[in-house]
């Protein structure tokens, strides 16, 4: 699951940070898109913040069109409309549903699909076992948990040692060209995990 940050603007109603989450399902999944939509709807309706306007969208790999990617990128820098999101979903045959309130969440649902499709946006909030590892830990533990590489912001690979993480928090690696990358910065001789959007 990845989290993607969208445009924060006074004309956009949002609950806390105007971000969206995308659940990535492997292609071997036997459930139909309709069954996935129904299950996602049950989960969201059972656990959304009162007053929010959630939306959900389900797409297959062949529906991840350049127009969808452009929509996602636009959602990071400008105010978009439900009409545009719904028209795009219709043209690409993407299942899209608003689940309450004004149904503005359909914009974020479509944007999330487009941004996740790039393979280079957002950060992982769940991947492998990374969410189970809380606080500081070894590089080896993180790599075994589902991270492909740990690197500094200037490109140095960190392949041993200890990574400092806030107590009771898990690391938030980023998707980079289809890989799971944890960015770190060196401070006072120690590597500290960096949270990036």
Short description:
The chain has 197 residues and is of the alpha+beta class.
Task: Explain the layout of strands and helices.
Elements (H helix, E strand, L loop, with lengths): L1 E4 L13 E4 L10 H14 L8 E4 L7 H9 L7 H11 L2 E4 L6 H14 L4 E2 L12 E2 H7 L3 E4 L9 E3 L9 E3 L2 E9 L2 E4 L4
Give a verbal description of the structure.
- This protein folds into two domains: 120 residues, Alpha-Beta Plaits; 67 residues, no CATH class.
- The chain is built from five helices and eleven strands; from the N terminus they run ββαβααβαββαβββββ.
- Strands 6, 7, 8, 9, 10 and 11 form a six-stranded mixed β-sheet that branches.
- α2 packs across α4 and α3 packs across α4.
- The protein is elongated.
How many domains, in number, for the residues? 2
Rough shape?
Answer: elongated
Which CATH architecture of the largest domain? Answer: 2-Layer Sandwich
Count of β-strands: 11
Radius of gyration: 18 Å
The end-to-end distance, rounded to whole angstroms, is 14 Å
Number of helices: 5
């Amino acid at each position: 699951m990845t989290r993607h940050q969208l445009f924060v603007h006074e004309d956009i109603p949002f609950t806390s940070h105007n971000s969206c989450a995308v659940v990535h399902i492997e292609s071997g999944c036997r459930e139909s898109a309709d069954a996935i939509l129904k299950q996602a709807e049950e989960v969201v309706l059972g656990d959304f913040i009162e007053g929010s306007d959630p939306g959900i969208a389900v797409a297959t790999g062949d529906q991840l069109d350049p127009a969808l990617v452009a929509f996602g990128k636009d959602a990071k820098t400008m105010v978009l409309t439900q009409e545009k999101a719904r028209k795009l979903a219709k043209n690409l045959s993407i299942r899209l549903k608003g689940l309450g309130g004004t149904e503005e969440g359909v914009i974020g649902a479509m944007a999330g699909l487009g941004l996740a499709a790039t393979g280079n946006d957002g950060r992982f909030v769940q991947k492998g076992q990374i969410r189970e590892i809380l606080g500081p830990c070894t590089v080896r533990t993180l790599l075994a948990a589902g991270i492909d590489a740990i690197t500094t912001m200037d490109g140095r690979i960190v392949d041993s040692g200890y990574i400092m993480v806030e107590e009771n928090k898990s690391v938030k690696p980023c998707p980079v060209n289809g890989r799971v990358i944890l960015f770190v910065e060196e401070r006072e001789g120690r590597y500290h995990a960096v949270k990036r959007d």
